[in-house]
């Protein structure tokens, strides 16, 4: 069953039981833009308990918000009761909702292009907010009074930027002004939610545009990224971002954005954004290793192989290339690194060590600090190609141990 069929089946059953039911929000926007929607949300006047009664497989997710997941084939369709959000505390999530009509439901939604409904049975768009006109004119415009909407929920400021960049739209002047006035309040939003939004922006090819918008609207300085930069530095960061491969992820994009920031400071920012330890480690690895690639020609094989085996090595090449491109420098070192990588057979990049601690013990050594030093030196020699089989490796090992 396709996603559309699943979402259609949900609407049909609700209608058969006398309820109003429509597709709502982002999926309508995407369909009108000719983009395949990632999910289709249903909105209905049926209260959650009724939704649960009408379908065989349901999961209540946001019961206080009236949201139920309805299982259809392999899809779970988010089915939400029309609602008005009440009681925004401190610009975050609403504390309370009341169930209402479709028209009222649009008023709680953020932007006109996200406030559309679609009747999949009649194949008709239902537009209470002039969303279709804004879609045609490529405008992000807050529904209702922008000042109030951003005061209610500060995260919407980042959503505005995300939709503008992703769709290549502009932000309506009154909406943009309201964002500028509320920009400092983005600090009150939890780091996790900010990270999620930033990830969606920075993992998208329009990432440089996103950073420009964030700067222009005054949001960038309030994000936990330490980007209180003069214009020149911002422009350079955007040039590096522009030169990244399209499919760069959050960490590679952060590395590009923070290419001129010391790695320890960048790692602190990643932690402030609640990035995982793995992500934080990858970010500082990218930043500390980037300039080392300039010396790739002088690197001994072991050093190069240990670098190249890192799961982020292709990102390192991409970062190094983007920085070089932004600086207008020749990309010879980058090309040399790629050639060198291509010249190494896959099984020689990180082969299993030919000698181990057992061999050292067999030679009468006690485990201790020398142990790992000798093993590291042996592994480096192996990677350098000084020996290729175990008998030769053992001869080297005896020399190494004898030289102690
Ligand atoms: P995406 O393609 O990123 O999923 P989307 O528009 O579907 O975009 P969602 O976050 O999935 O965005 O939200 C679905 C709908 O819920 C939106 O289209 C919008 O109508 C409404 N919505 C989501 N978040 C907010 C918010 N913070 N304030 C107001 N309305 C919101
Ligand atoms: Mg969505």
User: Hetero groups bound?
Assistant: adenosine-5'-triphosphate, magnesium ion
Strand segment count: 11
Mean pLDDT: 95
Spatial order of the strands in the main sheet?
3-4-5-2-1-8-9
In the CATH hierarchy, the third-tier topology of the largest domain is known as Beta Polymerase, domain 2
What does the radius of gyration come to? 28 Å
Percent range of helical residues: 40-55%
Distance between the termini: 70 Å
User: What count of structural domains?
Assistant: 4
Largest beta sheet, briefly? Answer: 7 strands, mixed
**Overall body shape:** elongated
Proportion of residues in β-strands: 5-15%
CATH architectural designation of the largest domain: 2-Layer Sandwich
Give the class-level CATH name of the largest domain: Alpha Beta
- The number of helical segments is 20
Classified in CATH, the superfamily of the largest domain is Beta Polymerase, domain 2
- Secondary structural class: alpha+beta
Q: Which residue ranges are poorly predicted, with pLDDT under 50 across at least 5 consecutive positions? A: none
């Amino acid at each position: 069953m396709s996603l559309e069929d699943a979402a259609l089946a949900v609407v049909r059953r609700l209608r058969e039981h006398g309820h109003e039911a429509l597709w709502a929000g982002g999926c309508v926007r995407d369909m009108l833009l000719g983009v395949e929607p990632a999910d289709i949300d249903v909105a209905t006047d049926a209260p959650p308990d009724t939704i649960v009664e009408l379908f065989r497989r349901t999961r209540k997710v946001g019961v206080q918000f009236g949201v139920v997941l309805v299982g259809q084939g392999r899809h779970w369709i988010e089915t939400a009761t029309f609602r008005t959000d009440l009681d925004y505390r401190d610009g975050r999530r609403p504390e309370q909702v009341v169930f209402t009509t479709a028209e009222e439901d649009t008023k709680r939604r953020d932007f006109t292009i996200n406030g559309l409904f679609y009747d999949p049975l009649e194949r008709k768009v239902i537009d209470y907010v002039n969303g279709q006109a804004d879609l045609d004119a490529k405008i992000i415009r807050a529904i209702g009074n922008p000042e109030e909407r951003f005061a209610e929920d500060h995260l919407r400021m980042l959503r505005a930027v995300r939709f503008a960049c992703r769709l290549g739209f502009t932000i309506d002047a009154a909406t943009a002004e309201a964002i500028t006035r509320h920009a400092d309040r983005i600090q009150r939003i939890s780091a996790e939610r900010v990270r999620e939004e930033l990830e969606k922006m920075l993992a998208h090819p329009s990432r440089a545009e996103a950073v420009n918008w964030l700067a222009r609207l005054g949001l960038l300085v309030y994000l936990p990224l330490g980007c209180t930069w003069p214009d020149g530095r911002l422009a350079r960061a955007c040039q590096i971002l522009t030169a990244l491969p399209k499919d760069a992820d959050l960490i590679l994009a952060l590395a590009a954005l923070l290419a001129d920031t010391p790695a320890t400071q960048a790692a602190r920012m990643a932690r402030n954004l609640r990035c995982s330890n793995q992500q934080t480690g990858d970010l500082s690895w990218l930043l500390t290793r980037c300039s080392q690639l300039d010396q790739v020609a002088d690197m001994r094989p072991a050093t190069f192989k240990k670098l190249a085996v890192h799961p982020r090595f292709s990102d390192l090449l991409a970062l190094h290339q983007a920085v070089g491109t932004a600086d207008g420098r020749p990309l010879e070192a980058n090309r040399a690194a790629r050639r060198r990588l291509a010249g190494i057979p896959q099984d020689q990049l990180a082969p299993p060590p030919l000698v181990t601690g057992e061999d050292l013990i067999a030679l009468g050594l006690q485990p201790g600090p020398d142990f790992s030093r000798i093993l590291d030196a042996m592994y480096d020699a192996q990677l350098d190609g000084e020996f290729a089989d175990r008998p030769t490796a053992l001869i080297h090992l005896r020399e190494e141990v004898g030289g102690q």
